[in-house]
Specification:
With 242 residues, the chain is an alpha/beta fold. It has a single domain, classed as Vaccinia Virus protein VP39 (Rossmann fold), CATH 3.40.50. The chain is built from 10 helices and 9 strands. Bound molecules: S-adenosylmethionine (SAM). The site of S-adenosylmethionine (SAM) has 16 residues, from helix 6.
């Protein structure tokens, strides 16, 4: 599978999310309904559709232009439709088997305030069917050197409010299960994709084994909604609410 088209940047570290997620998924996703929020170019929608899922690819504006070109290039355009969805207010209840996002919560916290990430995860929980799963890959604050680098060298680094390591379980409080790991220490410092690939290799074989977990800058995980808990009052099964 073409993970460069899925992740685009710092692929060596971020693409580890797919093997982590796959451990929680059936080998074939045919028949599953999936939603990507904050999709931008729709890389994760591509990954899901290539495995057979029917996908709604969404962002604050319909990510249709770049998304469709990518998805048609890989022959899965017929499995993906595009919608404009604010991840804090997903207009579906108990509809999806999978909801996926990458690099979303820190940006929303920076632009919409402290409560916004929890609004997103609550909204995802509501949109999932009982037994559904949220797959995520999110930036972490990492250690002081990551914070310094982002503040001074990443153009959007001051607009984001990156999640701290200890905040990940708090963000998934609405869910019934959470399995997650932190990855990556040096990949963030690469200036080119080639250098990030080398640093990502070092992360996997050295740094991720020996450095403290809360020094890492990527959280990857799967959070589950149990199939026997009651969902929100007035929830309507399997429909988009207008
Ligand atoms: C850093 S980009 C990540 C894009 C893509 N997920 C990726 O990892 O390549 C953050 C994305 O979140 C989207 N976004 C910001 N606020 C949002 C919201 N309230 N609801 C849905 N998407 C949002 C932005 O439009 C942008 O596409």
């Amino acid at each position: 599978m073409d993970l460069v088209s899925v992740f685009e940047w710092d692929v060596s570290n971020w693409a580890q999310a797919t093997s982590f997620w796959s451990r929680h998924l059936p080998a074939d996703l045919t028949g599953l309904q999936a939603l990507e929020v904050g999709a931008h170019n729709g890389g994760l929608s591509l990954w899901l559709a290539l495995q057979g899922a029917q996908v709604v690819c969404s962002d604050l504006r319909e990510p249709v232009d770049r998304g469709r070109a990518l998805h048609e290039q890989f022959g899965v355009g017929d499995r993906i439709r595009y919608e404009k969805i604010d991840a804090r207010q997903i207009p579906y209840r108990r509809h999806f088997d999978l909801v996926v996002f990458k690099s979303l919560l820190g940006g929303i916290r920076g632009s919409a305030g402290e409560e916004a990430p929890l609004q997103v995860t609550r909204s995802i929980w509501e949109a999932l069917k009982p037994g559904g799963k949220c797959l995520f890959a999110e930036n972490l604050a990492g250690c002081a050197i990551h914070r310094f680098t982002r503040r001074h060298f990443v153009p959007w680094g001051n607009q984001w409010k990156y999640l701290a390591f200890h905040e990940i379980p708090l963000m998934f409080d609405p869910f019934d299960s959470l399995d997650w790991e932190a990855r990556g220490f040096s990949g963030l410092f690469g200036w080119t994709e080639r250098s990030r690939r080398v640093l990502g290799f070092l992360d996997r074989v050295v740094f991720d084994r020996f450095l403290p977990k809360d020094w890492r800058y990527i959280a990857i995980g799967v959070s589950g909604k149990s199939d026997h808990r009651k969902t929100g009052a007035g929830a309507t099964e399997g429909v988009r609410e207008e």
